[in-house]
Amino acid sequence: MTSTGSTNTGRRTSEHSARIARIAVVMACCAGVLHAASSFYWAFGGRWLLGTVGAWAVKAVEDAPAVTGLVLGAVGLVKLLAAVIPLAVEAGRAPWPRVWRGVCWAGAPVLVVYGGLNIAVSGAVLLGATPVDGGFDRAAMAGHVFLWDPLFLIWGVALMVWLLCSRAPESPSLG
User: Fold this and answer.
1) Mean pLDDT, residues 83-106 taken together
2) Is residue 171 included in any domain, yes or no?
3) Looking at the domain assignment, is residue 137 inside a domain?
C-alpha cells in the first residue's frame, strides 16, 4: 500500500472506525439480549437468578404471576428491541436510521449512568461503606454489582462507542 497523503490515512482511519463500530454494536446487542432473555425467562415462569434482582421481584411473581409475567414480557420486548434496532441500523436494514440513532444517543448515557451508579451504590452497601438501617438483600446487591448493572454499563458504553465510531465523516474545510 502506498501512502499518497491524507486520503489513504483517512480511509484507513475510516475503515478502523467502522470495524470498531461494528464490534461495539454487536457487544451492545449481546448485553441487551442477555437482559431481554432473563426478563422473558422470568415472564414464562423461570426463577433462576430472580432473587439477584431483589426479594420484591420474587414476591411479585409469587403474589401475581400472571400480571408479573405480562409486565416482564413487555419489559423483555422493550429490551430486545433496544438491543436489536441499533444492529439493524448498522446493517442498513432499519427505517429511519437518524431517528433510531437519536434514540440511542438519548438512551446510551442513561444506561451508562444507571449501570455505573448502581454498581457503585450496591458495591458500597456490600462493602459496608454505606450502612443500611434494617439490613439489606445481599443476593440482590451482589446481582446488581456483578451481573445486571455491569450489563447495563457495558450496553451503554458499547452503544456510545458505536455511535461515535459510526458518525458520518466531517466534510473537509475549504480553506
Assistant:
1) 96
2) no
3) yes
